[in-house]
Amino acid sequence: MRLAFRHLAVASMMACAFSAYAQKGETVRIAFIDPLSGPFANVGQNLLKGWQFVAEKKGGANNPAGVNFEVVGFDNKGSPQESLNAVKAAIDQGFRYVAQGNGSGAAAAIIDAVNKHNARNPGKEVVYFNYAAVDPSLTNERCSYWHFRLDADTSMKMEALTSFMKDQPKVKSVYLLNQNYAHGQQVAKYFKEGLARKRPDVKIAGEDLHPLGQVKDFAPYVAKIKQSGADTIVTGNWGADLTLFVKALIDAGLKLPLYAYYPGVSGTPTALAAGGDMEVYQIAYNHSNYGGELGKISAEFKKKFNDDYYSYASYNAIVALGDAIAKAKSADPVKVAAALEGLTFKGFNGESQFRKTDHQLQQGLWLSKWQKVDAKNKYSVENTGYTFAPVKYIESYVASTPTSCDMKRP
Fold first, then answer.
1. Do domains 12-152+291-362 and 155-284+365-399 have the same CATH topology?
2. Which residue from 205, 257, 199, 210 is spatially nearest to 233, judged by alpha carbons?
3. If you classify domain 155-284+365-399 with CATH, what class do you get?
4. Is the pLDDT confidence value at 11 over 70?
5. What backbone torsions phi and psi does residue 290 show, to the nearest 5 degrees?
6. Which helix (H) or strand (E) holds 389?
7. Are strands 350-354 and 344-347 parallel, antiparallel or unpaired?
8. In this structure, how many other beta carbons lie within 10 angstroms of the beta carbon of residue 226?
9. What are the CA-CA distances from residue 231 to residues 178, 247, 274, 306 (Å)?
10. What is the fold, at CATH topology level, of the domain defined by 12-152+291-362?
């Protein structure tokens, strides 16, 4: 009898051990849904390579769950409607995790699609990692249990940016240029609100919202900026819309200080370098000159692709997913979503946490400045001889903003 109990105890222990590590060696597939063709294709292709590269680096023994990651690209052409088609195709192919970032309109469509799918298909739930769509509504009135945002939202970035700009005495008159969709509208809104609180003496010289991905010549907008007398420009533009704007500024000889969200994104650094020593500031969760593991990953990525790895949110996503799978002892999205809620993990900026109330990642932000590479800041962005050097780190508690999310949990 004692022998039988001993065998039973050993069997029970082995079963528990197997259960704890049942996901080891499993391949977790992630559908990457973003523009891989059209005007923003260069951004989407870079980001897809970044996700795949980091997934390979952090697979297997390099994450606590021991799982492998596979990232497959789906082209949404930057369209909300095409995003819905991509989500359906990914789900039909068995993907249980999706990642998207370029375009808050597409992000909103994906949140709605995932919510509906999960409600109608218990046992086949999907989790959505949003790594770059920063409209605050996505973690406020549109918040979803299945949605986890890895980038800082516009309100967080503007809180950090305006906190820096209020201490810049030469900023007296600002022109706002943004893309005419949720993200661009929110950039203008939160900038004006933050500025009114912190520097009410600063004048808004003018503002424009232009069609997303449709403007080929920004010279008319530059002429308006010049005529306004503004001494500073603020923009949330990204991709071709920022690259072409920068080229138009340089062509017009209007090298005003530029405060931007995405000047480090594909194509824009090369355009900036053509203008020489432009005064450009970037507000983001990262800069160009990390050491340690991120510095090594960036160097290896450049060596392999002759391109820059700049969307570090993919690193945080893969690390957090591995930690959550280990915590859940399963790769089942239902269990992983529960493990991700409130999860604290070691991100590239140190301790980071998915706030349980709205699934917005709480993390520090960097204000960095465009300058020539030097002994301290050696990374040459797009091989231009220039870099985004860190100027100021804004702690997560400073950048954090409240949420109105009323989370509906399954």
1. yes
2. 257
3. alpha beta
4. no
5. -75, 150
6. strand 386-394
7. antiparallel
8. 15
9. 17, 18, 21, 36
10. Rossmann fold (3.40.50)
